[in-house]
């Protein structure tokens, strides 16, 4: 207070200071922003503080600070020699970076804010590291800033910080990595900078258990290409993942580890490897684990592993059908997906699902609200319909009525899968007569502009039309005219 101002300075702070005994308080935001370029350290401390307080009051204030050009000086002040200035500038910038829309984040990148922030990741001062990490984490919620962080060389110093003695810093690094590794180029750099090895070190250290769930999520993000898969396999990572999967009572770790396994299982080579390590047994065990997230992730892994024929057989007695009684929509979706895969071209599995009462539960799913669950259930029923005893059972549970609604869906996947199911179900005379009531909605599908929907509708109509009554009914709905129109359109496009 009452500080003397250097005469030679022509900066705005000079004027205001001469006029006011209290240099910052009571000033307009515009003036405070100008003060950010003042050489006086005490004033800078206060100006940053005032900006922080003002920005904290709401997004409108942040936007007006943006308009006043507050970001550029703030981005410079975070590297100031004075620790207090640095801290206050960080706080002000930090609050700006949490703007609900992305304007501020983009502007911070535009104002050359990222290079000093990245530089501070290697600062000897742990507070600097933590403060810049916090801002970087907020910035990378925006796609553009994620790319910029990578381009500006932010990944190596970030990985270096995994070794920090401060758990709060390690958490922030992992949370940031979780976001930035959604980008392929960033994953490549992550791999080249020994990111996997560093994460495996964390995963092997039981003192770092609280970091494992986050670390596994990063691993899962980066496991999408074959180079990473080889790397993880060579480094004994697969065994580590299997161990993480079985970590008792820590569902977040387990579900993320299962996600990693599902990623690894994307290639047929790896599926063989996983099969060799008896992954099926582990997955079966996991299905009895209480947490929904683990069961859901496990169903997804089962779906992928089903590409491997030997695995498909070893899942035969899996209690997936029981999961459909659960109220979780996500779990139902994943479970019906797994069932559709397990029963695809596998009559023994289809029979096992039937024996577990699966056909009745699947018919009920056709009334559900989740489109993917409906689509998956329809396809599974179609897969099962080839065996007569199952076929009869499906009908006895009201399959006919249950299909009418999905046939009027606006979702093409639901339409395709249901018509597929209908075609499979309409394979005998009795069934075709039963399915008459589906005639109207089926004929309506001939109006679709979606090629695949049209194709499947034609197939289903073709099968159903061998029943005279069904054929007559479909003609009453105008099927013949529409089919002729389609034929005309096709010949016109093939001169
Ligand atoms: C970033 O990661 C967090 C988890 O740490 C997640 O909740 C958030 O949705 C991610 N944001 C983006 C944009 O990916
Ligand atoms: C659904 O799963 C959760 C977690 O496994 C369990 O607690 C709940 O009882 C299940 N609900 C039903 C109806 O089975
Ligand atoms: C599993 O289902 C998905 C979606 O229906 C499909 O893309 C995939 O090919 C199926 N896999 C197997 C093994 O049937
Ligand atoms: C059935 O629907 C699902 C969407 O849930 C889709 O992924 C799948 O490919 C469809 N199956 C077939 C055989 O078309």
UniProtKB/TrEMBL annotation:
Keyword Repeat in record: yes
Gene3D superfamilies in the record: Leucine-rich Repeat Variant (1.25.10.10)
Sequence ranges of the ARM repeats: 112-154, 153-195
Coiled-coil features, chain-numbered ranges: none
Protein name, as recorded: Armadillo repeat-containing domain-containing protein
InterPro entries reported for this sequence: ARM-like (IPR011989), ARM-type_fold (IPR016024), Armadillo (IPR000225), Armadillo-Ser/Thr_Kinase (IPR052441)
Keywords: Repeat
Species: Perca flavescens (American yellow perch)
């Amino acid at each position: 207070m009452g500080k003397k101002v250097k005469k030679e300075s022509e900066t705005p702070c000079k004027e205001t200071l001469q006029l006011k005994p209290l240099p910052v308080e009571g000033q307009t935001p515009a003036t405070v922003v100008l003060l950010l370029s003042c050489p006086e350290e005490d004033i800078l401390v206060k100006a940053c503080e005032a900006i922080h307080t003002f920005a904290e009051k709401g997004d409108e204030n942040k936007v007006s600070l943006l308009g006043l050009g507050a970001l550029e000086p703030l981005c410079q002040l975070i590297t100031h020699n004075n620790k207090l200035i640095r801290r206050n500038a960080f706080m002000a910038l930090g609050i700006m970076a949490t703007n609900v829309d992305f304007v501020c984040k983009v502007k911070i990148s535009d104002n050359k804010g990222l290079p000093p922030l990245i530089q501070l990741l290697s600062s000897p001062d742990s507070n600097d590291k933590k403060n810049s990490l916090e801002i970087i984490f907020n910035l990378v919620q925006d796609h553009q800033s994620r790319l910029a962080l990578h381009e500006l060389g932010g990944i190596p110093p970030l990985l270096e910080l995994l070794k920090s003695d401060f758990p709060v810093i390690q958490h922030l690094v992992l949370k940031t990595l979780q976001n930035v590794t959604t980008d392929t180029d960033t994953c490549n750099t992550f791999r080249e900078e020994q990111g996997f090895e560093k994460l495996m070190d964390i995963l092997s250290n039981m003192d770092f258990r609280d970091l494992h769930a986050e670390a596994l999520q990063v691993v899962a993000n980066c496991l999408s290409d074959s180079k990473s898969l080889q790397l993880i396999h060579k480094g004994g990572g697969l065994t580590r993942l299997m161990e993480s999967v079985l970590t008792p009572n820590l569902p977040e770790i387990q579900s993320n580890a299962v996600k990693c396994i599902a990623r690894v299982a994307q290639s047929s080579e790896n599926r063989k490897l996983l099969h060799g390590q008896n992954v099926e047994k582990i997955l079966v065990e996991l299905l009895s684990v209480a947490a929904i997230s683990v069961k859901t992730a496990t169903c997804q892994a089962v779906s992928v592993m089903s590409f491997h024929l030997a695995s498909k057989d070893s899942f035969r007695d899996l209690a997936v059908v029981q999961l459909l009684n659960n109220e979780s929509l996500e779990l139902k979706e994943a479970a019906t997906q797994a069932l559709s895969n397990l029963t695809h071209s596998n009559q023994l599995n289809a029979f096992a699902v039937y024996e577990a009462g699966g056909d009745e539960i699947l018919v009920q799913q056709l009334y559900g609200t989740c489109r993917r669950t409906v689509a998956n259930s329809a396809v599974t029923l179609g897969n099962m319909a080839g065996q007569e005893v199952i076929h009869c059972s499906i009908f006895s549970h009201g399959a006919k009525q249950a299909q009418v609604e999905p046939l009027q869906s606006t979702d093409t996947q639901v339409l395709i899968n249901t018509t597929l199911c209908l075609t499979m179900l309409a394979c005998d005379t009795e069934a075709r007569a039963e399915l008459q009531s589906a005639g109207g909605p089926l004929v309506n599908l001939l109006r679709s502009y979606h090629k695949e929907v049209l194709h499947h509708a034609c197939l289903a109509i073709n099968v159903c039309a061998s029943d005279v009554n069904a054929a007559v009914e479909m003609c009453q709905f105008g099927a013949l005219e529409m089919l002729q129109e389609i034929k005309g359109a096709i010949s016109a496009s093939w001169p």
